[in-house]
Amino acid sequence: MSEAAFFYGTLMATEIIGDVLCGKSAPRAIKTKKLASLQLTKALLKGHRRYAVKHATYPGVLESDNTTDQVHGILCQGLTLRDVAALDDYEGDEYKRQMTKVILESLEMNDQGEEEQGKTTTASCQVYLWIAGKDQLKDHDWDYEHWRQHHLADTVV
Hints:
The chain is of the alpha+beta class. 23% of the residues lie in helices and 41% in strands. The protein is globular and about 45 Å long.
């Protein structure tokens, strides 16, 4: 049986997924094979909010009282229990893993070749929620593209 997790931060980068699940020093071919065994799908986590963490380059997510809050990320399916253990080590004691549901939205092509909103489905998965204290979070969202441009190369796995 395979496991699934919702990634909303540094793990949205396939480079980081490969390093975490296979080891930073693993050959590229091993990481490529591992990534090919996973299914990565854009997803939404409703009823939660993502924050930048103070004095860090990664985010934290908290449940929100506002049901319209949502976090964009990816659903990663096909994980093994060994993969989950590696993710637990990577996330550390600032996060707690728990079950949740995310929304997957499929895009379909219309007769003119344009993308249209498709059928919306949900999937059960695990998510790593921030537990190290709200006082450690900034009052704004974490920016994935900024992180990729400025911090990806320095991210320690």
